C-alpha cells in the first residue's frame, strides 16, 4: 500500500468512526426512551400553560382599593380610611387597631364602598381587611395597614361658642390653636364663617395661635351663624397638619347691650332697642379703675372664688389683698380678671354713689346667690354668653381687643387688616 492510499484509508476510517460517534451522540435523542422524554417535556409546558389559563379564568375581576395605602403614616383621622371596589361588590370589611379593637363601619347600599362610622384616634395603627365578589361570584381579597397622624404632627383649634348654643349679639367666633400657625393663609382658607343675615364676616389673627371672626357691627338678633372647619390635612406649620373636619352652627338671640357709666355709677340695660332697667353699680376705684370699652360676657358663674393674688393684687406678705370664696353671680368680661358680679360685702350705700372695687363692676347682691330679687341676681338671670357690656367714663385705657372676646374695640379697617387672606 502506498503512503497515499494508506492516508486515504485512514481518512475514510476516521470519517467512518467520526460518523459513528456523531451518529451515536445524536442518536441518543432518537431512542424510544429519550423520545418519550422529549414528548413528556413538551407536554408539561403545554399542561402548565393550560393551568395558568385556567387560573386566570377563575380569578375574580373585582378590584379592591384601600386607602390610605399599605404602610402609610400621618394618615387623616377623618377621611383617610376608605375601601372601594370596581367590577364587583364588597362582601365584608373589617377594621381594627393593632391592639385588636374593632372599628365599626358600614358598607354602602350599592356595595361599592365602605368607611368607618366615626373619627379615628390620633397616633394609632389600624388594619383593614376587605373581601369582594365579582358578577360570577368569584372572590377577591385585599389588606392594608396604616398609622394615623400623631399629636406632635397635628394641630386642632378649640373654638367658641359651642355647637347648638344661643349667644348674645357680641359673641365672636374665636379659635385657639394648640400649635403655633405659620401658614396662616392656608389655615384661614380652610375656615369659613357665615351668617344667615348676610353680614360680611372677616377673620383677624391675634398672634400665631388665635383667629377670631366677626362682622363689622354686632350680629343681627335671631340670625344663625355657621362655622365650617375644613382643616383636615392642611399644613399649619412645617410637618404639622390639621385634623378637623366639622360644621358648627349657633343661634344669635335677642340683642342686649348694657352700658356702665362709672361717672354716674349706673348701668343701663337695653334689649332690642328698649331700656329694660337701670341698675346702680360700683366700678373700679380711682386707684384701680375699670377698663373702658366694649366687652363681651365670656363666662358665667353662679358663685366663684376671687383671689387678688391671681391678678397681681398682693400685700407685703405676697398674699392677695382680697380672697372671697363665694362671689355671687359673676360674669367674666376679660381674661385679665375683669368681671361684672354681685357684691354682698359692700355697704348698700356704695352702689350708685362710690367706685370702690379693684377694677370689677359690682352690683348689690346677697351671700349665697339665692336671693333672686337682688340687682346682681336679676342681671345674671337676664344675661347670656355673648351679651355686650360697654364700660365708659372710668378714666382708664380701653381694654385690648384680645383680652377676652373684645375685638369690637378695633375698627373695621384694623380688623380686616389682621386677616391672612
From TrEMBL:
Pathway: Cell wall biogenesis; peptidoglycan biosynthesis
Positions annotated as active site in the UniProt record: 341 (proton donor/acceptor), 360 (nucleophile)
Domain L,D-TPase catalytic span(s) in chain numbering: 256-392
Signal peptide positions (record): 1-25
Keyword field: Acyltransferase, Cell shape, Cell wall biogenesis/degradation, Peptidoglycan synthesis, Signal, Transferase
InterPro entries xref list: Big_10, LD-transpeptidase, LD_TPept_cat_dom, Transpep_catalytic_dom
Region: Disordered, residue numbers: 28-61
Key word Kinase present: no
Tree of life domain: Bacteria
Biased composition, class Basic and acidic residues, residue ranges: 44-60
Protein name, entry field: L,D-transpeptidase family protein
Amino acid at each position: 500500500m502506498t503512503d497515499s492510499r494508506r492516508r486515504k484509508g485512514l481518512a475514510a476510517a476516521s470519517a467512518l468512526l467520526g460518523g459513528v460517534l456523531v451518529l451515536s451522540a445524536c442518536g441518543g435523542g432518537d431512542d424510544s426512551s429519550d423520545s418519550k422524554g422529549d414528548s413528556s417535556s413538551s407536554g408539561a409546558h403545554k399542561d402548565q400553560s393550560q393551568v395558568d389559563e385556567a387560573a386566570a379564568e377563575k380569578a375574580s375581576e373585582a378590584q379592591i382599593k384601600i386607602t390610605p395605602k399599605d404602610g402609610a403614616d400621618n394618615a387623616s383621622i377623618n377621611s383617610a380610611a376608605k375601601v372601594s371596589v370596581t367590577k364587583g361588590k364588597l362582601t365584608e370589611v373589617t377594621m381594627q387597631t393593632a391592639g385588636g379593637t374593632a372599628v365599626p363601619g358600614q358598607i354602602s347600599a350599592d356595595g361599592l364602598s365602605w368607611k368607618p362610622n366615626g373619627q379615628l384616634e390620633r397616633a394609632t395603627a389600624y388594619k383593614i381587611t376587605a373581601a369582594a365578589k365579582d358578577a360570577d361570584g368569584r372572590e377577591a381579597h385585599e389588606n392594608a395597614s396604616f398609622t394615623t397622624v400623631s399629636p406632635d404632627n397635628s394641630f386642632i383649634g378649640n373654638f367658641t361658642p359651642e355647637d347648638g348654643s344661643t349667644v348674645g349679639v357680641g359673641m365672636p367666633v374665636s379659635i385657639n390653636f394648640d400649635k403655633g400657625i405659620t401658614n396662616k393663609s392656608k389655615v384661614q382658607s380652610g375656615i369659613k364663617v357665615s351668617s344667615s343675615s348676610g353680614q360680611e364676616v372677616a377673620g383677624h389673627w391675634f398672634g400665631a395661635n388665635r383667629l377670631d371672626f366677626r362682622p363689622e357691627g354686632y350680629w343681627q338678633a335671631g340670625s344663625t351663624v355657621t362655622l365650617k372647619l375644613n382643616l383636615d390635612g392642611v399644613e399649619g406649620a412645617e410637618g404639622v397638619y390639621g385634623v378637623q373636619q366639622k360644621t358648627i352652627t349657633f343661634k344669635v338671640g335677642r340683642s342686649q347691650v348694657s352700658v356702665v357709666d362709672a361717672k354716674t355709677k349706673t348701668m343701663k340695660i337695653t334689649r332690642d332697642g328698649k331700656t329694660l332697667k337701670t341698675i346702680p353699680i360700683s366700678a373700679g376705684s380711682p386707684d384701680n379703675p375699670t377698663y373702658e370699652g366694649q366687652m363681651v360676657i365670656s363666662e358665667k358663674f353662679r358663685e366663684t372664688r376671687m383671689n387678688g393674688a391671681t391678678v397681681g393684687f398682693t400685700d407685703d406678705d405676697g398674699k392677695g389683698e382680697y380672697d372671697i370664696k363665694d362671689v355671687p353671680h359673676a360674669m367674666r368680661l376679660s381674661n385679665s380678671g375683669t368681671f361684672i358680679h354681685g357684691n354682698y360685702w359692700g355697704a348698700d350705700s356704695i352702689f350708685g354713689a362710690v367706685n370702690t372695687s379693684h377694677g370689677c363692676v359690682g352690683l348689690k347682691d346677697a351671700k349665697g346667690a339665692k336671693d333672686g330679687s337682688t340687682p346682681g341676681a336679676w342681671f345674671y338671670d337676664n344675661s347670656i354668653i355673648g351679651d355686650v357690656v360697654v364700660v365708659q367714663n372710668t378714666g382708664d385705657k380701653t381694654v385690648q381687643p384680645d383680652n377676652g372676646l373684645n375685638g369690637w374695640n378695633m375698627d373695621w379697617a384694623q380688623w380686616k387688616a389682621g386677616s391672612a387672606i
